[in-house]
Amino acid sequence: MMKEKNTETVLREMVREKYASIAVNSESCCGPDGCGTDYSWVGEKYDQLQGYHEDADLGLGCGLPTQFAKIRPGDTVVDLGSGAGNDAFIARAETGEKGRVIGVDFTAEMIAKAKDNLSKMPFDNIEFREGSIEDIPMRNEDADVVVSNCVFNLVPNKNKAFSETYRILKPGGHFSISDIVITGDIPVELKYEAELYAGCVSGAIKKQEYLELIHQQGFEAVQVQKERRIEIPDEILDSILDENQRKLYDESEIGIYSITVFGKKPSVNQKCC
Predict the structure, then answer these.
(1) Whose CA is closest to 25, among 141, 109, 94?
(2) Which of 85, 197, 202, 247 is exposed most, by the fewest CB atoms within 10 A?
């Protein structure tokens, strides 16, 4: 058990350091100039969505969860792993001046960047809180909608993250989460390779396992709203894997997919406390 906890701590710190560097340098690990690695193959373009703010778009997502989140005017929306604020600002365009948007991120540097972006906007109903999605700094049953973009795959304890999502949602509330899942198996030798992990691959789990975690927490009406296969360019793999690691990767026949998943908390809380 101690070894497992130590591994989780190492992974969290690896992700924290990577994303702190992105925030400080205003660069993206998913962009052609960011952190020495191009992960532009992961994401989708946001600039057609109302509320888009270019300075908040670090290219770290793998989908467009706010587009599928069924946000209504006046909703309280929580963005888990809010980064520089991109999805939070788009959610604000949906929920309007009578709603509320709360972004949560465990990287202090990202929170600072999001707050700096917010300071340039005329909104008083968006806030950003530093905290882990495995221990969300919010009251029970406070959110109407939860969104998240390519973050749960980075969390070692995904079960706890979904449990926390369930806790903060109001009865009848729902989430829309974009994330990376896989088919096949990540070779053990690559499981904790830093660039693959921070690039949203090594921390991903199988699609069926991912959906089962959601069901186990008591969510209903679970559905995949969008699915898209992702191919890592050869030049990217060659830049982060040595010859032996690349051979292992190719032989594993891993399939990588971006999915956007919807789940609803029952109107009557059926989960035992």
Answers:
(1) 109
(2) 247
Q: Which residue is listed with tokens 């991120």?
A: 105
Tokens standing for residue 249: 């990767």
Choose from 17-26, 143-152, 195-204, 240-249 the range with maximum mean pLDDT: 143-152
Torsion of CA 189, 190, 192, 198, to 10 degrees: 170
**Three-state DSSP class for 112?**
helix
Domain ranges of the chain: 2-264
Q: Which residue type, as a one-letter code, is found at position 209?
A: E
The average pLDDT across 189-218 equals: 78
- Contact between 59 and 28 under an 8 Å Cβ cutoff? The reply is yes
Residue owning tokens 């806030």:
127
Give the integer Cα–Cα distance in Å for 128 and 118. 9
Q: How many CA atoms lie within 13 A of 181 on its CB side?
A: 19
pLDDT at residue 239 tops 70: yes
160's CB contacts (< 8 A; 6+ apart) are: 134, 135
Select from 3.40.50.150, 1.10.760.10, 3.40.50.300, 2.60.40.10 the CATH code of 2-264.
Answer: 3.40.50.150
Radius of gyration (C-alpha) of the chain in whole angstroms: 18
The two tokens of residue 91 are 């959610």
